[in-house]
Amino acid sequence: MIDWDLAVSTGTRLVRPGPQVTREEARQAVSDLRRLSREAERHVREFTRIDGGASAQAATIVDRPGWIKANVAGFRVVLEPLTQRMSGEGRTQPPAIVAAVGSRITGVEVGAVLAFLASRVLGQYELFLPPDPSGRAPTGRLTLVAPNIVNAERELGVDPGDFRLWVCLHEETHRVQFTGVPWLREYVRSQMTEFLLASDLDLPTLLERLRTAADAVADAVRGGEGNLIDAIQTPEQKKILERLTAVMTLVEGHGDYVMDAVGPSVVPSVTEIRTRFQQRREGGSRVDRTVRRLLGIDLKMKQYAEGSAFVRTVVDRVGMDGFNKVWGGPATLPTQAEIADPERWIARVVTAPALETPHLNGSPGGGPAEPASGSVDGDGDGPPREG
User: Fold this and answer.
1) 285 burial type by CB count under 10 A (0-12 exposed, 13-18 middle, 19+ buried)
2) Region entry Disordered: which residue ranges (predicted)?
3) Strand pairing class (141-145; 60-62)
4) Are the C-beta atoms of residues 320 and 49 closer than 8 Å to each other?
5) Which has the closest alpha carbon to 379: 160, 136, 188, 198?
6) pLDDT digits (tens, 9 = 90+) for 242-292
7) pTM for this entry
8) Which domain holds residue 155?
9) Is there a domain that residue 174 lies in?
10) Number of domains forming the structure of the chain
C-alpha cells in the first residue's frame, strides 16, 4: 500500500535543514529541553490534578529527519488493520506491477507531506509506537523537535528559556492526559481503526475520491476552504471523524489552556510569547497557507481556539475538579455541539446526578463504555506548530 522506506528517504531528502547552531548551542538546547520537560510535567500534574502515578521522564529530543522516521513508524502501526484487511483472503489483489508502482507513488506523497510538516512541528506525544524487541507495545512517548524550537524562538525574538518551557508545558499536558486517563489512548486508537476500516476500497469509489480530492486542491489554490481530509472521506467516516474531532479538540484545547494558565507563574514573558506565536501561526506565504488548508492544519488551529475556550469556560464555571469529570469515560467527553456551547456539557455531565464518573487513575468499570448516540470524540497529537 505504501513504500515506507521510500517515504522516509523522500522526506529526509526534501526536508529543509534546521537553523545554523554551534555544537555547544545544540548540546545546550537538548539539555534544556530534557530538563524543562521534567519540570513542565510537575507543573502540569499539580495544576490539572491528573496523576497517573508514573514518575516524570525526560522527553525524547529529535531533529527533523528523526521526527520523520518516528512518524513513519507510527503510521505503520496505525495503518496495520487496514493493511491486513487489504491483503486478507478472498480479496482481489491488483497485479504486482500496479501494486509496486502504487506503493511507490504513495510513499513519495507521504514523504513529501512529512517533509513539509517536519520543519513546523515543535513537539508531539506519540501515541502509537512499534513494539519493542520483547513484542510489547509502548504506551507512548513525548518527542520534541529541537531545531524547530530553536528556529521559532529566534524568529519570534523571545527568551529561549521561557519559550522552551512554554512549549514543554503544552506537550507535557498531552503526556499527562494519556498517562493519567488510562482509557483515553485505547479510545482514540479504536476510533482511528474504525475510521480506516470504513474506507471504500473498490476501484470506482477510489477514482471518485481522487476526483473529489482534485476539486479540493483546486478550491484551496483559489483561496477556498477545500481540504483533502474532507474530500476523501466516506459518509461513515464522516460520522467517526466527528467523534475524533471532538476528542482531539478537547485534548488540544486543554493543552493550550494549561500552557497559558500555568505560564504566568513560571514563564515571565508568557504574554509576549503567546502574542508573537499567534501572529506567526496566522502568517506565511500564499503557498504555505494553501498547503496548510489542504492538509487540514488550519482546522487544527481552529481546534486549539475552540477547545481552549471550552476548557476555560468550564473551569471558570465549575472549577478544575468539575472540569475533570470530562475524563470519566467516553460518555463524558463533549460532543462538538457541547464544545461550542459548554453549558450543555456542564448540564449533562457535571450537574446531572445520574451520571457517575470513575477516578482518573483507574479504568472505567469493565472498560470504556459505548458513547451515547451522537456523542464524543488528533500532533493527541497536537503540537504547537510554526505556522
Assistant:
1) exposed
2) 356-387
3) parallel
4) yes
5) 188
6) 888 899 899 989 998 999 899 899 999 999 999 998 887 666 555 555 555
7) 0.76
8) 1-85+94-180
9) yes
10) 2
